Amino acid sequence: MRVPDFWAEARKLHRAEGRQITVRRLGWSETSEADAAQMAEQRAHEALRRILAGEKLERLEPKVAYNGAEGVPIREEVLARHGEDVITRNAYGAHCLNSPHTLFADIDFAPQRSLRWGIASFLVLTLLSALAAVIFRRAGLFVLLLLPAMLLAAPLRNWLQDGWTRLRGGPEGMARARIQRFLAGRPSWSLRLYRTPAGLRLLATHQTFEADSAEAQDFFTAVGTDPLYARMCRRQRCFRARLTAKPWRAGIAAHMRPRPGVWPVSPERRHLRAAWVARYEQAAAEFAACHYVETLGGGGVDPRVWVTVELHDHQSRALRNGLALA
User: Fold this and answer.
1) Do residues 217 and 209 make contact, with C-beta atoms less than 8 angstroms apart?
2) How far is it, in rounded angstroms, from Cα 252 to Cα 283?
3) Which of 75, 91, 167, 277 sits at a 20 to 30 Å CA gap from 126?
């Protein structure tokens, strides 16, 4: 896991035979801006050399904070360091805990619309259209009914999938069933269960993990974690949990200024960010990011993990059930 304090960007130009090549690369450091600038220069020079040699490389490195930052460390403002754990401010302003060895996994209840259900719904409507054409002995009726079938396929899919979900205990019941199936064959595991505004959060306490390990990735798949989160854990080699409210859930409609929220911010624009942050921190103090519910499994607690558990529970206000979730 890498979460640098200092960032820089270097730009290299090459003109030859009437065309210009511009290359931009980022540099980073945990010690100084000078080291970050030196790294940016080296990376830009190397990228230009490889492009001129015929290699297909991106000329402009995307400025992203976390999601999609392939090969680049987490580019967020560092708020605090607690041993190997780092708290940062993400692109929309919330505090996030980044931990290299404590396994977190959020499970959202929002339904993931299935392609299989969609195909099945369209096939059912198509068969009904064909049946109507046979019954009324009018071949043109089948063609006429195909358009309504295409329009009704998505609503029918949603109705069928939601009904199937309710029969299986609803989103929470299905999520808990997946968790229990996973734990059934793993007596050494122990999971703290939290409720979030959108679903559940799991925190494994029995041992430490590597975020890019097969064991962690298999766990994500088994319990139904967002595939994007699993992929970013693997890329950044760390686990991640939001600690404070999402701004729009805390009554802050405006985006963090300046946009797009990528760190660092130029000195002349930092007052915009500071003003937004002050409003956000005041509003977010009235909410919890999650509530602790129970511990599942009998695997116990690794002392190395418990340090992160206490940090997470305090910063997220997980034990203050009187606060609304946001």
Assistant:
1) no
2) 8
3) 167
CA nearest neighbour of 64 among 74, 55, 54, 56: 74
Maximum C-alpha span of the chain: 81
Interhelix angle for 170-184 vs 214-223, to 10°? 140
Pairing of strands 324-325, 287-288: parallel
Instruction: Identify the DSSP state of 56.
Output: -
Look at residues 14, 16, 216, 182 and name the one whose alpha carbon lies nearest to residue 99.
216
Name the helix (H) or strand (E) containing 152: helix 139-167
Query: Is residue 87 exposed (0-12), middle (13-18) or buried (19+ Cβ within 10 Å)?
Result: buried
Closest CA to 299 of 196, 181, 208: 208
**DSSP codes joined into one string, 291-307:** EEEEEESS----HHHHH
Comparing 55-64, 199-208, 209-218, 232-241, the range with the smallest average pLDDT is: 55-64
CB atoms within 10 A of CB 249: 17
Q: Is the pTM of this model over 0.90?
A: no
What's phi and psi for 110, nearest 5 deg?
A: -55, 130
Helix (H, G, I), strand (E, B) or coil at 82: strand
With tokens 């939601």, the residue in question is 162
- The answer to which of 81-90, 113-122, 255-264, 279-288 has the lowest mean pLDDT is 113-122
pLDDT at position 200, please? 97
How many of the other CB atoms lie within 10 Å of CB of 49?
A: 13
Contact 182, 190 (CB under 8 A): no
Name the strand (E) or helix (H) holding 231: helix 227-236
Tens of pLDDT, residue by residue over 256-293, are 988 878 888 888 999 999 999 999 999 999 999 999 99
Which tens digit of pLDDT belongs to each residue from 215-258? 999 999 999 999 999 999 999 999 999 999 999 999 999 999 88
